[in-house]
Amino acid sequence: MYTRRDTQQISVGKVLVGGSAPITVQSMTTTKTADVEGTLQQIYALAAAGCDIVRCTCNEQEAAEGLAQIVPRSPIPIIADIHHQYKMALAAMEAGVHGLRLNPGNIRKPEHIKAVASEARDRNLPIRIGVNGGSLDPSLYEKHGGLTAEAMVESALQEIHYFHEVDFDLIKISVKASNVPLMVDAYRLLADTVKYPLHLGVTEAGPPPAGLVKATAGIATLLLEGIGDTIRYSLTADPVEEARAGRQLLEALGLRERKNVDLIACPSCGRAEIDVIDVANRAMKAFEDKKLPLQIAVMGCVVNGPGEAREADLGIAAGNKRGHLFVKGRNVAVVPEREMVDALVEWAEFINEHGTDAAIARADTKLAEREAARDRSQLLDEKGDDANNAESKIVEIRKTVSD
Ligand code: SF4
């Protein structure tokens, strides 16, 4: 589909970033880092949701002390986020973190930058140069006549220059902006300029769903060009949502092995025999914490559903107050409508353990196909080929238009 850009690989704790390593998901805790138990609780929830690397702010001495206790108990590597005080970077390294994020717009004195990079070099720890459109060095802003892709990339290059002066090279870079086209341009330019791994993100994307759309637009565009080694969704939401979104995006693009259910569902239409939105949401909830790498379909009618979702591992379609279960497009069982979600879970767990062939083999497919055919033809008789053409629908549409 595309060729992934070749980058220099670094290690963040045990997690590799760049080169041929899988693209990783990052997030950031929202607790006070000094609150050790609260922060660890959030880190465990993030790891369970698919987060590979987590960042915690290190903005005060208490935070650094918290990190010293958090790091040994964390299931995933920890990066300390540093903004204005370079001494906090030194304290975080002393606390045992696996890497740092420095904002070049906020720590500007070369001697401070070099002091941090020298210490990181001696400890063999990576640093992310985290350029942020909102906190760009004002001199660069002025030089480039505003916030531009060139200004952001130049900010990163200046920081790299200081790092190289002290012989430090364990670098990854981000050039985030809240404006998606600008962020995409900045990363493209950066990818053409350096060999370092890139951390992708749309900064301050905002609350879902708009935030999800913006972040996905920027991150997915770049990933499909082969740019990006690690990603973060910056959402105004529970960070678990960020981790989930990151993981889902990578699975959807085929960039990470599927670990979770890929729930597909029809958008519903006049032919739907059930409230598809309700059943799909209940199914999503039921599968949320189950690690089943399957594609599962929820379809509103037995007339078109099984055919349209024939590639899914498992699916269910509604008809005549019943749910028609199908595996790889083959009808395998019929269940009462209220048991649709439970039946999906039971069959999904069976398939996960034994495979789709075994699921088809255990079913009375002849009976299930007969029942499905009966419901299908009954619905076709009642509603015709085009359910949206039904008299009741036309009356409804006329009423909506005249209202
Ligand atoms: S025809 Fe059936 S499967 Fe297709 S959108 Fe309508 S209800 Fe869903």
Walk me through this protein's architecture:
- The chain is an alpha/beta fold and 403 residues long.
- Helix content is 46%, strand content 17%.
- It has 15 helices and 15 strands.
- The protein has helices at residues 36-48, 61-73, 86-95, 110-123, 138-143, 149-165, 180-193, 210-223, 239-252, 276-287, 305-308, 340-354, 356-362, 365-383, 391-402, and strands at residues 10-12, 15-17, 24-28, 53-57, 78-82, 99-102, 127-132, 171-176, 199-200, 230-232, 262-265, 295-299, 314-319, 322-327, 330-336.
- It has an 8-stranded parallel beta sheet. The chain has a 5-stranded mixed beta sheet with strand order 11-12-13-14-15, sandwiched between helices. A two-stranded antiparallel sheet has the order 1-2.
- Helix 11 links the parallel strand 12 and strand 13.
- The protein starts with 9 loop residues before the first strand and ends with a helix.
- The model has no long low-confidence stretch (mean pLDDT 93).
- The structure holds iron/sulfur cluster.
- Iron/sulfur cluster is lined by residues 266-269, 271-272, 299-301, 303-305, 308.
